[in-house]
User: Fold these one by one.
Assistant:
Number 1:
Amino acid sequence: MGMNMITKRYSKPFPFIFIVYVFFLHPISNADNTNLIFKGCAEQKLHDPFGICTKNLKSLLVSLVTQSRQKPFYTTTSGENKNMIMGLYQCKGDLSNISCYNCISKIDNMLDTLCGKVVAARVHLCGCYLRYEVVGFKQVPETHLLYKVCGSKQESSEDNDDGFVEKREMAFDMIESGVKNGEKLFYTGSYKSLNVLGQCEGDLASDDCGDCMKSAEDQAKTECGDSLSAQIYLNKCYISYNFKPNEMPKKSSSPGKAIDKFNHIDQLSIILCLFVLI
């Protein structure tokens, strides 16, 4: 789903309203899979005088929730022709089926409150995300940056040189190899006190997933610099890392930021949901 400017082929652009929520300024545990990270909602409401699109959307969401009991990733459509709606969900690769189902069900329950009846939406929780769109909307590139969270930074001092940059490079190499060669296009692991996680959308080819990971890593360096933790969400993949040296002096962390030109951005508060292993 396009997160830059959602555009119908036959009408003017409809930008997203993108709202960022921040609740805690510290990492939360893996048990909090249903906490909200970010949402993107199309500004245009469903033009649905006969209720056809609403019915198709309801049918789509029922199908996605049902499949989440069995699969970590699923994509499908509902309806026909100009009333067709495409949707998918993705659960974090280490979630059980029941945890995946609970996560996707939470999105289903909160979607109308978060976005209302709109032509396209994306909701990302700590353990899963779901997106849908009416056919005819322009896609942004797979490596388009949607959202970032940059953590605290190490104080500049020779005494505090723990080889963070080198360790991060090694950990990033592990992510690229892990997602391409592992199951579910998912990898989580650690390298010398640096925990990492990466995942691609389930329909990406292995090589495309590797390319997406590389782009996310490059953007983590560009956007977050020497932050000791970061989360980078692209259109088709995301990564997170968390470096935990012993008693290292830190600067204050920065809140998450929506990366796009939307008509309206509210920074209320951000869940720092580090997927990697507290």
Number 2:
Amino acid sequence: MKIRNYKELAKIAGCGVGTISRYFSGGSISPQMAQRIEAILKTNEYEKKTENAKVIYLLLPTNLNPSYFALFQKLLNSLLNQEYAVNTIFLTSNWEQHDEQQLKLLINSNFEKIILFWPVANGFITEILDFLQPWKEQTILIGQNCPGWTTFFINNEKLMYDFTMHLLAKAKNILFLSTKENDNKEFYRGYYKACQEVAINPQQLVLQKNGEADEVNLTNAIIDNKIETVICYEDYSQFLLKKLANYPVSVATITCNNEDINQPWKNDKTMVIDWAEMLTKLVAVLNNPDQKAETVELRYKIND
């Protein structure tokens, strides 16, 4: 039997494509699964496109929220579909000795590219870039705008400014909702600038992630300030707002995929970041070894 790619091999072995990728790149898998894959390869004809597999190190923070983790999964699947062998390294949001030890794995490794997936605006670590300097031309940053590097980024401040200005055309009392763990200052600056431009008082509520108390504070903020629209961008805030679905308030959210829009409110508005465009351009960069450093600002659109 001829096996043509990772997907077919994974299906026969009864495992995920990621496990096959780790097998060929020397990553960690169970001895039992390694033996099973070896047995399959011995008894079947496999087109060994991956003998000299193009290895990518994918670096990302440990504290990704569910939305960003979903983006990471799409990125990983896109790389695996291109038959890259992907090694994933999780790093903390604060530079620690453990992080440096993990990154030292790169020093004696053979790889084609490093992708630093770091969409967390409030936790970017300059020490990582310092460490990656020797491989600057092989590194792609996703989520941060760093001059001189190949970067795919979202201008969060501009995005939120444009979104808020759009909302202010129909609503004057807008609440900016965030949490203490995910208080995106770039988003808030964009919101604040838009409010100042039209002489509207900016209103913010920072949730403490303490359940009922947050629900009470959010309810009071909506009622006391006659809020017409609430801007939120992370899952906990949206979870609380679902409980308040009967209140006459519009909810404005941010997503990276139209398919992720599944909300119970009427008159919602959604800012959609063009993630598919980024994946297409990323694959083009990976397939072009002579690609020079460039900065790609991701596009976005508003769905009314």
